[in-house]
Structure of Cupin domain-containing protein:
Amino acid sequence: MQDFNVGERLREMRQAADMSQRQLAEASGVPHGQISMIETNRSSPSVASLRKILGGLKVSMSEFFEPDAPLSQAVFFKPHELRDLTTRLYSTLDDPRGKITLQQVGDARAHNLQLLHERYEPGADTGEAMLEHASHEGGIVIAGEVEVTVGEACMVLKAGDSYLFDSSQPHRFRNIGDREAIVVSACTPPYL
């Protein structure tokens, strides 16, 4: 895969939105320095941090990573047709530990429903800054183990276990095991 310059892409989108780094930081609720560090590639954002920043730009991760993805009215999808929302975040890493791969089925915004195939390598973590967004989400662990924290509740889910919650509650996903974890999830309205 060709390297994807996350910092350059963020700077291009921020400038196209006619926003300063400070304005984007305020709109997304992140420190100003974090925007600068990401744009200069001195820091790689977590999935949660990048999603907050993109929220300030009012764009999805799909729009960020695959801006030229054609709109499709497809009903059925092969694995290679899923929209890759995260792999480019890790395109320069040699070691897959800690990597999260999120693949989206079709155009989530067109259906007001986001279906994801999620892969969490050992050590993967959505980030210490808990996710919060106006949605509802649920999922089923297909393989491995994932620690899911929702508000004050925390549980390690294994293959066959599932979750369902109001996404406005702070939440986090971590693979604390020693093998890949796979989750299939849904979120409405779409968040990523």
Q: What stands out?
A: The mean pLDDT is 87. The two ends are 22 Å apart (CA to CA). The longest strand covers residues 136-143.
